Amino acid sequence: MSGFQIQPFPVDRVRPLFALDERELARHGARRVTAQADVGYPCRVGLRDVRSGESLIALSYEHLPDRSPYRASGPVFVSDTRPARPEVNEWPDMLSRRPLSLRLYDERHDMIDAVLVHGSEAPAQVHALLDRTEAAYLHVHLQPRGCFACEIRRAQ
Q: How far is CA 156 from the centre of its chain?
């Protein structure tokens, strides 16, 4: 069984957005939002649900920028928080509470498999998917909306 490692969100790419006003954010296709509940605003930087009243930035994030038929981007929330650095095989609570789609990719960035799973059962599926010889990495998407959550690779 392969160990897995959740890859840190590239916070350096989004941190400058927090200093921008609403007009400048709009030029970047982003906007500042305030969480209206304790659930439903998952921060990709901290891999946690932000609390009601906390500020986030909603933006379109290209999570599969490589040239392939599966090139993709989509909306994510980010907060100005300390980046999560999960340990090998660590599964964040934010992911445990949700239905997820696990999408498996090969070195050519082609999707080779996908499964729907409840977050509490996902680590076993992650291990099984990454044990496949053709597997390069997988993406976790939050269901039912399908927003990108994080990338996972085999632990080194």
A: 20
> 131 is written with which tokens?
């044990």
Tell me how far apart the alpha carbons of residues 97 and 75 are, in angstroms, rounded to a whole number. Answer: 20
Calpha distance 144→56 (Å, rounded): 21
* C-alpha dihedral, 97 to 62 to 6 to 86, nearest 10°: -80
Does residue 66 come out as left (phi exceeding 0), alpha (psi in the -120 to 50 range) or beta? beta
pTM: 0.94
Residue 69: cis peptide before it, omega within 30 degrees of 0: no
pLDDT digits (tens, 9 = 90+) for 45-59: 999 999 999 999 999
Residue 23, token pair as written in the block: 């007009």
**Whole-angstrom Cα distance, residue 113 to residue 92?**
23
